[in-house]
Specification:
globular, single chain, alpha+beta, two-stranded antiparallel sheet, three-stranded antiparallel beta sheet
Length: 104
């Protein structure tokens, strides 16, 4: 599958589970071009373009403390079909830094 098809499928899957899902294209020196996906205003994930150009599993990232721009990124591996389940797991099990958990 190509990049556009993959990101559209991810957006569709997330929209079925979460009320509010937004996708932006961004770029950084470290990651190159990437999609930033905001879910319910409480979690964002980063998926580099190069990671979802093909099929199968891909690496993606989310911040251990979403309220801190300089927060370390946690790397996860998913595929298009189970990414939504991984995000549900992060939110339900509060898989964030202790510092961030205190603010929740």
């Amino acid at each position: 599958m190509d990049l556009k098809t993959n990101i559209n499928q991810i957006h569709f899957n997330l929209s079925q589970r979460f009320e509010d899902t937004k996708i932006e294209e961004n770029e950084s020196i470290k990651l190159g071009k990437f999609f930033k996906i905001l879910v319910n205003e409480s979690l964002y994930v980063i998926i580099p373009f190069k990671n979802i150009r093909g099929v199968g599993n891909f690496n993606w990232y989310y911040p251990e403390n979403p309220s801190n721009r300089d927060s370390s990124l946690i790397e996860r591996v998913s595929n298009i079909n189970n990414l939504t389940d991984c995000l549900v797991d992060i939110l339900e099990n509060k898989r964030f830094s202790e510092e961030y958990k205190k603010t929740m």
